[in-house]
Amino acid sequence: MSKGARLVKPASYTALVVLLFLVPLFVKGAYFLHILIMAGIAIILTSSLRTIATTGQISLAHAGFMAIGAYTSALLVMKLNFSYWVALPLGGIAAALLALLVGYPFVRVKRVYFAMLTLFMGAIIRLTIMEWRGLTGGTSGLLGIPPPNSIVIPGFLNIAFDSKVPYYYLILALVLISLLFLHRIDSSCVGRTLLAIQQGDFVAESVGINVTRFKVFALCVGCFFAGITGSFYAHFIKVLTPDSFGVLQAIYLVVYMVVGGRRRFYGAILGAFILTLLPEFFRILREYQPFVFIGILLVIIFLLPDGLVSLPEAVKSRIKKVPEGQS
Amino acid sequence: MSLATLAQSILNGLAAGWIYVLVAVGLTLVFGIMNIVQFAHGEIYMLGAYCSYFLIKVYGFSFWEALPLAALLVGLLGIVLERFFFRPFRGRFEPSIIVAVGLMLLLQTTAVVGFGTDTKSMGGIIPGVLTVSGITLSWDRLLAIVVGIILVAALFLLIQKTKVGQAMVAVSQDPDAAALHGIDVNRISTIAMVIGCALAAIAGALMGSIFSTSPFMGTSAITKGIAVIILGGLGSITGAVAGGLILGLIDGLIPPLLSPTMAGIFGFGVIIIVLLFRSRGLFGHE
Fold this sequence. Notes:
The complex is a heterodimer.
Chain A: H1 3-26, H2 30-53, H3 62-80, H4 84-106, H5 111-131, H6 133-136, E1 151-153, E2 157-159, H7 164-187, H8 189-199, H9 201-206, H10 211-237, H11 247-260, H12 265-277, H13 290-303, H14 311-320
Chain B: H1 3-34, H2 41-57, H3 63-86, H4 93-115, E1 129-132, E2 135-138, H5 139-161, H6 163-173, H7 175-180, H8 185-210, H9 217-232, H10 237-257, H11 260-277
């Protein structure tokens, strides 16, 4: 590879990041920024779900772990007067600790049973929030969650969270940090190990990999980022209800991941971005709008069962195919 | 809890349990034969409820005519679903989830647009109660139990005594080996899907007549259905019956003692514990 070619990738990434930082200068409508922020939330959730899925486990508890982060952070700030900037990582740590606790028994259960086990785990988290009214407000919700504390450096900087713009920059920062971290894992020897586990537990074990420990590790890392995202969500939306973290939300994340394509790191990002953003352009259809999302979903999965990331290969194999009678 | 409340709770639990069983046997059949978790099965159940509602309220059929008609209509829909949605994805776990979820959203949104979000009541099947030595038992619950038992018994007979039933067992054990023995796997998949859809439609009609219909009623049904087949063991019909009755009784007995939410926590908790010690469920095979 020439020196120039080696610079293309970092240069284009830098350009993309710079562009993303400039978005609020061009986009004036609060509504569009709101959608972008929600897309950012979906991107972290889906990418962290992919890290868990790299070990061959589909978790349907991701919305539940997001709820753990959301409620932990909101309650720490509201009841114990924590600063948001302390509560944010604590939300992630709470979710990761729960994942560590249930991880060891859970990861022994394989394939579809693991998916279902996590489905019930997610349901239990949601039901517990509903039942524990004294702490969480139950179904009527946790109201009046304060915005993040202003970032103040005297005489230099004062960022107050009073519009969508600071939230946009915060989620952008969180997305970049999470993706860098998750990508680092993915391309490290840990990532290779996780991939080996996906391809075969027994083979991986036979070459001396502690399969259980790596599976739990992946679960904890994934859930940590779900918790962080939950914390951001709580202080952004400012109201938490258990219904925001239902089974359907967890299933949506799996949909984003599979539609984007699980084989590549950017598949989860692509899936989350497209499926959260595209339907918004069809709000004019009102109650018929969900059909757009469903349509995109079905068309992609019927044409590209391995997700959007398999598009280049699918196109290549189409072109290369020699027309009949010419070989 | 008094004896009368206890009896009524057990009856409610058994009625709910048999309705869960009717939903779950379809799910477990489709999973066993096509290796697909049919997330849209709850929406099939919802369509069954609406079908019988319209047959009764708009077209003037009696409940006893509407029940088989709804099963037939929804069963026919099953043919379409199997052929065009599920057959291309048979045995491919991840894409099949997406298709099932897409279908679930499609049917639910269609119901919202077509039928509205309000709940509709079709009136009780048999109103009134049966009083036995001071204990009141409502007729509609008793009826749901009887219908459930008859249909599941018929399904057992079909599977054990007929050639089609044995072919279904063969396909669920090994589709390739079954095909090598001259079994048309596609035809068996269609039959499994039709039976599953018809039973779910009847379950929906029964539930709809005991309570009411809503476009979102499928969501709780699918959660319960999945819980039942995981508890009982994927692909096992005996397991679906056992799982359905266990969860039904939990849902009947816990709410009067604690709260409906606690019943949910308790039910899912039981399944998680069972899975941790016996990961194939109560009656599942490895």
